[in-house]
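Sequence, structure tokens quoted for completeness.
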Amino acid sequence: MRLPFAPPLAPMLSRAADALPGGDGWQFEPKWDGFRTLVFRDGDEVILQSRDSRPMNRYFPELLASLSAAMLPERCVLDGEIVIVGPSGLDFEALLLRIHPAESRVKLLAAQSPASYVAWDLLALGDEDLREAPLAGRRPRLEQALSGAAPPVHLSPATRDRALAEDWFRRFEGAGLDGVMAKRLDEPYRAGERTMIKVKHARTADCVVAGFRWHKNGKDTMVGSLLLGLYDDQGTLHHVGVSAAFTNAVRGQLVTELAPLRENALEGHPWRGWAEAQEEANAKMQRLPGASSRWNRGKDLSWEPLRPERVCEVAYDHMQGDRFRHAAQFVRWRPDKRPEDCRYDQLEVTPAYELERVFGVSH
């Protein structure tokens, strides 16, 4: 490629904070919940690079034609996010389905749920390397570069108004956005460094602990993650996610603490069908649909059932459909809570933010 620099490039990273930073000199943007992607374009040649430098071209064929069209500058490097907009906002599950080995399957999904690209930074334009320019200079260049862009390429909103950013934080979550990013206007693009600040939603929920997975480095001696469940209005226990951030000492303690709940755990277990299907698949050396993907290849996803009698409180950022979008953070055991009281109706419901401003569609 005839660009000032070629892939792979480590993208600029972020660190978490509890609130938007104070003082002047900040630019605020929505935190998009998609696949972080760098776009390298040199004429008809386009390379999509993931955050961890993996090639993404084969998974988003519908974007390649658009990104190589005249809607973008002939030669440029962009930083942004690949997203899919569904009926209820951003659909991360639809993105995960794209990571599939069959080209025919990817093409079918591309036709059914086409992806979009939201750009928030311009790193190169023509022969210019803009990484050393401050964000205050890069942002106007980005807006000018995308002035002729059309869907599925979009410019991410940005503001220096903290009150507006706080309003975004309150309203955007219902559409699947992940929070708000804060970036220093006077800073260059520091590849691989955690210079951006992300402020995400944080809430707690009481969940049933209905199983666990062994730690990869200590089967039978360390618990890797707890499997969490919530009941719906019909009394069905749904698997909603995991809690996995424990010290090795706590992982060992959990083995002893959970041992009584393993006795006869599968008898009448609400996830018995899942367990039996996994056991049968393991015996046949078969991979269950959805059990493993390109992102967790080689990871042992087998699990140990527990009698669903214990409740824990966990912290989470937001829901993706009926599951926690990210791993939940264990807070404490709740012996005062009954498992049957751990229901979806305890979760905070946020109204959906209309995505018309960015995508020209409503949901």
Summary: Confidence is low (pLDDT under 50) at residues 284-298. The chain is about 20% helix and 30% strand.
